[in-house]
Design goal:
By secondary structure, this protein is α+β, with helices and mostly antiparallel strands. It is about 25% helix and about 30% strand. It has an eight-stranded mixed β-sheet with strand order 1-2-3-4-5-6-8-7, with helices on both faces.
Length: about 190
């Protein structure tokens, strides 16, 4: 397992900056995280107050493993992209690999513009080229067709189904799990 500390990392794409969160991002984060249907696609309830957002943002600052998705033209944070412990770390077949898991959420206002694939591909390049990872894993809830399309666009290969328990929603979700090996990067 490899640490992926985003504190001093900035990754730039044509339209985005991926950087560490700061407390100054509170209003932008609340703006996208409070919209019904956004968090629920990732297994958490939409934020009902800025106090909730402040707690989650504090967790991001402490864990140091979540990038902002900052829209350069609009000059605001429109989502997040986390680099977490991989589901593959629990699988005998993949344990030997240096792998991280990608998770993301995007403001509903920006869905369908290709921004998440742009961000994910940039993080994949950084992970393989700089962090020398062997693979990335990723998953999506079966009913989340938008995430499935992002995952396919980024070159991930389906491995297996699983079940995810979303503690905050107290609900189980069937999910599809994927991997992208370094030699197959997009």
């Amino acid at each position: 397992m490899t640490d992926f500390d985003v504190t001093n990392i900035t990754i730039e794409t044509d339209r985005l900056l991926l950087r560490a969160f700061t407390m100054d991002d509170l209003d932008d984060m609340f703006a996208y995280a409070s919209v019904p249907g956004v968090g629920e696609m990732a297994g958490w309830p939409h934020h009902t107050s800025k106090d909730v957002t402040k707690i989650i943002l504090g967790g991001f600052l402490k864990s140091k493993d979540v990038f902002t998705i900052f829209h350069k033209a609009d000059k605001k944070v429109i989502g997040s992209l986390g680099i977490h412990t991989a589901w593959t770390d629990r699988e005998e077949e993949f344990k030997h690999l240096k792998t991280k898991n990608i998770g993301y959420v995007l403001s509903k206002e920006y869905w369908g513009q290709g921004l998440v694939p742009e961000a994910v591909k940039a993080v994949i390049r950084y992970g393989f080229d700089v962090m020398e990872l062997d693979a990335f894993s990723i998953e999506h809830f079966v009913e989340n067709a938008q995430s499935r399309r992002v995952i396919e666009k980024c070159g991930f290969k389906f491995v297996k189904t699983g079940v995810y328990h979303a503690k905050q929603l107290d609900k189980h979700f069937d999910e599809m799990r994927y991997i992208l090996m370094k030699e197959h990067k997009a």
